Amino acid sequence: MLFNSFVFLIFAAAFYILWPLARRRKQTRWLLISTASFFFYGWWDWRYTFLLLAIGGITFVFGLLLDLYPLKKKLILIAYLIINLGTLFAFKYLGFVTGAVNNLFSVFGLEAPVPSYSLVLPIGVSFFTFQSITYIAEIYKGTEKPTRSLLHYLSFASIFPHLVAGPILRAKDILP
User: Fold this and answer.
1) Which of 4, 125, 132, 164 could join 59 in a cystine, given CB atoms 3.0 to 4.6 angstroms apart?
2) pLDDT tens digits, residue range 105-142?
């Protein structure tokens, strides 16, 4: 959904009509923000909302793990970065790398050993990935405590005005 489209005007009007009712109760507020953000993101291709939910869920769990196991926080951070950046790599660079490997083999007259991939790059996946990393980095450094509510985290991480365009928000500025 583009910010300068008629559909966005309808979406924004519906959100701001519901906001005065939803903001009175915390859970309802977080539910409206998350639902609207996922609807906004899914307008382009609803299947990628599952990617957003997966990255958000993984980040939420790893934030809690960092808090629960402070003696293993370096290992937890490394595992998180491998998963999170691995996902980004798969969408952005896997096709390029497999193509380059296959081209290298073809230079020597060998058959392409690696299947070629062509994944559609979800809108804002880099931004969402790095936003999640900043949240984990703040918990790792001890400057932020993890939220205990998945809905609260998803509201922070997927808030629709920033979801596809940024800037990257700091948890300490938005979560409260």
Assistant:
1) 132
2) 888 888 777 777 777 778 778 888 888 999 999 999 99
